[in-house]
Amino acid sequence: MSPTDPDDPLAPTVEPSGAPLLQVHGLEKSFGANRVLKGVDFEVRRGEVVCLIGPSGSGKTTVLRTLNGLEIPDGGVIRFADAAAIDFSKAPSKAQRLALRDRSAMVFQHHNLFPHLTVIENVIEGPVHAHGVPKAVAVERAERLLERVGLGEKRDAFPFELSGGQQQRVGIVRALALQPDLLLFDEPTSALDPELVGEVLVVLKELADEGWTMVIVTHELAFAREVADEVLFFDDGVILERGAPKALLTNPSHERTRRFLDRILRPFDG
Amino acid sequence: MNETWALVVDSFWPLLWAGLSATIPLALASFAIGLVLALGLALMRISANPVLSGIARSYISVIRGTPLLVQLFVIFYGLPSIGIVVDPWPAAILAFSLNVGGYAAEIIRAAILSVPKGQWEAAHTVGLSHTKSLTRIILPQAARVSVPPLSNTFISLVKDTSLASLILVTELFRQAQVIAAFTYEFMIIYLEAALIYWLFCLVLSAGQGALEKRLDRYVAH
Does B131 touch chain A (CB under 8 A)? Predict the structure, then answer.
């Protein structure tokens, strides 16, 4: 299964235009007096994996949340391929917000699974109750997706009966079931016990290999290096530096980037 | 002693019947209506609209700040003086519903707010509308939290229905008064009435336990 496989009902549609899937320009956001985003520009092409790194409070999570409509930017433009650009210099209409939200799906740091629903119910909730997919169809898709991440047998378990890594994999499946153009991951492994991080990263790697378009906020630099097509380094509300992962992570051109990488890679040195 | 025992036995059925045919239906109807009212008030109270939340806040303040007996008397004895005559049963149900609404609103509000914000976000993220997020994701989780305090409210209500005896509703306590006045056995009859209230509440507590267990099935212990 991959997003580019035309026979696969789970795959998002692909248009051959070659235009970027997502264009973000001049994104701004303040919380009260706190300017969190001070003009952020980037593009994501189909099939690309873009990793957002940087210190906490630098705005990377806020960018992700604006893409999914969880935060409304104060200014800037977000444009998905084949859709009208949304200019946030004026308040977006409800229709614009809904259109934006439906292009992407979010995987949260703390998975935010619905605790009162079983695994399968979590996965089909959106397709059935928001998007009108017939239940039998949604269940069949959900079962296939759960199988794929090795959780077929957990379909009737409640989230609390799963390990952290399993919960996060269900969170990923819940996002995949929405058949979005773009997958958004907000520090998907940060809340996990170290020994559970690997099983989630393996799934992310597989999704990347299959051609899913992903934007990932992460502190897993080794993962970013292996999987990302581009790494964006956020600092104080702007993208301070961007580039191919190897170049940026081994030989950053900005002092601040260097210091950040040093802190993460060698926390106990000087 | 035999006579006393005979009185207890003879009066038990009329008292129990008054409880089953009046006290319990009165409490159930008032609680059901009160809950609907409470949900509306809780949502108004949480809403960002200052007028709506102000109305809810004032209502809750008045209901909680005045005695239930006074509320009952205003409706039954007060309204006729402005031309609105309400029969005993509807008056009792109205008063108890309005009262429960005020108390339960705060319980439901707190329960809704106790559901983590991430649940709203996840619900929106999978595409649910605000209303569906509320009804399918938030309220089921809030229900679990609110069962113990709402059970308290319901048990209080069952006992408070005895106040309806003062507006001529023949419920359990009114029946006890009638029998006591007839037999002059005040101690025995009122203790018997108390026993039946207690039995009702034991059953309700057991029901609460079962409901809590059911709603707890998705929570780690």
Answer: no
Question: In the CATH scheme, what architecture does the domain A19-103+182-270 have?
Answer: 3-Layer(aba) Sandwich (3.40)
Note whether A156 contacts B: Cβ–Cβ < 8 A: no
Q: At what angle do helices B139-160 and B24-46 cross, to 10 degrees?
A: 140
Q: Which of residues 89 through 108 in chain A touch B, CB cutoff 8 A?
A: 101-102, 105-106, 108
The structural domains of chain B, ordered by start, are 2-218 (1.10.3720.10)
Provide the strand spans (E) within chain A.
22-31, 34-44, 49-53, 75-80, 86-87, 104-107, 182-186, 214-217, 230-235, 238-243
Q: Taken in order A182, A187, A188, A189, is the CA torsion positive or negative?
A: positive
pLDDT in tens, B154-213: 999 999 999 999 998 999 999 999 999 999 999 999 999 999 999 999 999 999 999 999
User: What pLDDT, on the 0 to 100 scale, is given for residue A65?
Assistant: 95
Distance from CA of B101 to the nearest CA of A (A): 26
CB contact under 8 A, B124 and A105: no
For residue A120 the two structure tokens come to 């399968």
Average pLDDT over residues A187-201: 90
ipTM over 0.85: yes
Burial class (CB in 10 A: 0-12, 13-18, 19+), B116: middle
pTM to 2 decimal places:
0.87
At residue A93, does pLDDT exceed 60? yes
Neighbours of B169 (CB within 10 A): 24
> Kind and range of the H or E element at B169?
none
Pick the residue from chain A with its C-alpha nearest to B135.
Answer: A129
- Residues B78-91 have pLDDT tens digits of 999 999 999 999 99
